[in-house]
Amino acid sequence: MTTQDTVMADQDPFPTEAFECGPEPIEDGRTLRDLLLEAFDTHADQPALADGSVSLSYAGLAQHAGLLAADLRRAGVGPDRVVAVVADRSVTMAVAIAGVLLAGGAYLPVDPTWPGARIKQVLDDAEPTAILCDDPSAVAAALDGAQGGPVLLDLAQWAKAPTGAQPAAGTGQAQSDLDLAYVIYTSGSTGSPKGAGVPHRGIVNRLRWMQEQFRIGPGDCVLQKTPYTFDVSVWEFLWPLLTGARLFMAAPGGHRDPGYLADTIRRERVTIVHFVPSMLDLFLAEVEPGSLPALRHVIASGEALSPALANRFTAAHGGGLHNLYGPTEASVDVSFWSCERPETGRSVPIGRPIRGVRLTVRDEHGRRVPAGAIGELYIGGVCLAREYLNRPELTTRSFVVGLDGTQDRYYRTGDLASWTQDGLLEYHGRTDHQVKLHGQRIELGEIEAVAGEHPAVRMAAAVVRPDARGLARLLLYVSPALDQQTSGELRGFLRQRLPENYLPSLITSLDRLPLTSSGKCDRKALPEPTQGGPGRGAGRRAAVRR
Predict the structure, then answer these.
(1) Where is each AMP-dependent synthetase/ligase domain found (predicted)?
(2) Which helix (H) or strand (E) covers residue 67, if one does?
(3) Is residue 424 in a domain?
(4) How far apart are CA 180 and CA 105, in angstroms?
(5) What crossing angle do the helices spanning 258-267 and 277-284 adopt, rounded to 10°?
(6) 121, 206, 331, 419: least CB-packed within 10 angstroms?
(7) For 490, what's the count of Cα atoms within 13 Å in the CB-facing half-sphere?
(8) pTM above 0.90, yes or no
């Protein structure tokens, strides 16, 4: 925050209040279970989902998910009970999520490719009632033989429902729209990930807004390609299945292959797809202009969308590109902008608040800033997560009340933003050390905390910097200087404890990390990494590649 920004705020403290509120939410108390059951009945004969080898109609999905829901209820699943899903992307994964919701529980996605230590960390923190998994033996090994834990259920037994099998009658316990719908774990600065628990009220509002905005139904196809541990996957799964559209599940790992995605979108006649901007850039290089006639809308989020990329898309494929913004703690997305004309600013706006959302930009004292001034973005409204699971103190710190002398609740995003004179939000990066790399949110402090657990590391600092081609890369600096063997051991140590996207491209070791006058690590003074062994003297460094 600059001094000029604060002076401007003092001169006119409420100039942007009229921009802050989206349209009123649609609230009728309904839950995802209510909406799924309605869709299953309305669209019974329509195709519901497929993954290239298996396909189900809405009636078939209702049967498979209903049988699973009945077993989950017998295992004790109901409102506010968490069920972990540990599975590769497939029709079975979608059935598992639908089954948890029909049982009245909240689903928790757990990536089976995570290191065993991280899987155990998340499961220990979430304390799920049951775990649905492709490979029960691998999950049991990750839990390290703990006794009295959750019920493990093998998803293979629901891959093919017995002919004529019918779900048990009834839908279980009564459910409120304030009950949890899902829990997604995000990066934590202390080295421990935190689970954002989102209630039905927030995600139902978000999905209804999306249907109101884009209008899909039978004949449409949504591609599910986002890893399901990231919140974009929530609308990819649920929006088509609530509206009679078809959901196509990309192959595991397919989201990283622009050629595969182009072929799949063309073959399956996908009409709606999401891209992180960096992947959209690669995707555009794979497709000829006009070669995807069925594609109606491309949703971009997860990173800043550049005007050059937006204009390149529009020039090649016409309209239909939309820039959305939102954190996991706020039901996926909270603002929206359609790129309907050439973008001429220095950035593409993240737009205006969607239905049921309030967005406000404040200075360090909690005061509104005027248009053009940069401040921290706060989010309020029905979209907010209910809690960080089993973390009441962290919940209280992150979700604040009393911002305007009221009991309204807001989430402090840690994102910097500003309003334009026309009431559009522009994004300006992070206030802390949390970053987005290739669309995935990473807390640099978590990487530093895990590196600091290695016995040879005294201090650690993680940063994201561009390489010679201008592409972002994750770098880790540690002290004291390490020999080549110890650096290699540190790489293996991190690989055992962190997900793949958290692993640094390069580790550089220094005799000591540069410090500010207050004793904190001076990240701006960290040198560019070099190759080769350690040099001589106080500034020596050693680098090891991923």
Answers:
(1) 40-389
(2) helix 58-74
(3) no
(4) 7
(5) 70
(6) 121
(7) 34
(8) no
Do 467 and 359 fall into the same domain?
A: no
When divided into structural domains, the chain yields a total of 2
Say yes or no: 452 and 396 in one domain. Answer: no
Distance between CA atoms of residues 388 and 370, nearest Å = 32
What whole-number distance in Å separates Cα of residue 76 and Cα of residue 150? 10
CATH number of the domain where residue 502 is located: 3.30.300.30
What's residue 438's pLDDT? 80
- Shared-domain flag, residues 391 and 287: yes
260 and 145 fall within a common domain? yes
Tokens of residue 215, six digits:
């209008």
Residue 12 lies in a domain: no
Instruction: Answer whether 86's CB lies under 8 Å from 92's CB.
Output: no
What averages of pLDDT result for each successive group of 10 residues across the chain (546 residues)? 41 73 94 98 98 96 95 96 97 98 98 92 96 90 74 81 56 87 87 93 98 98 96 98 99 92 97 92 89 96 88 89 98 97 87 98 94 95 98 96 92 94 91 79 84 88 86 92 91 93 94 70 87 38 54
Q: What is the pLDDT of residue 162?
A: 57
Q: Which domain holds residue 507?
A: 435-545
Pairing mode, strands 297-300 and 272-275? parallel
Could you tell me if 247 and 336 lie in one domain?
yes
Regarding whether 149 and 107 lie in a shared domain, the answer is yes
Nearest residue to 412 via CA among 451, 476, 364? 364
Q: Rounded to whole angstroms, what are the CA distances from 111 to 122, 143, 229, 325?
A: 10, 14, 7, 24
Q: Enumerate residues 6+ apart whose C-beta is below 8 A from 442.
A: 187, 434, 435, 436, 474, 501, 502
- Tell me: do 337 and 453 sit in the same domain: no
Residues 290, 357, single domain; the answer is: yes
- The per-residue pLDDT for 515 is 77
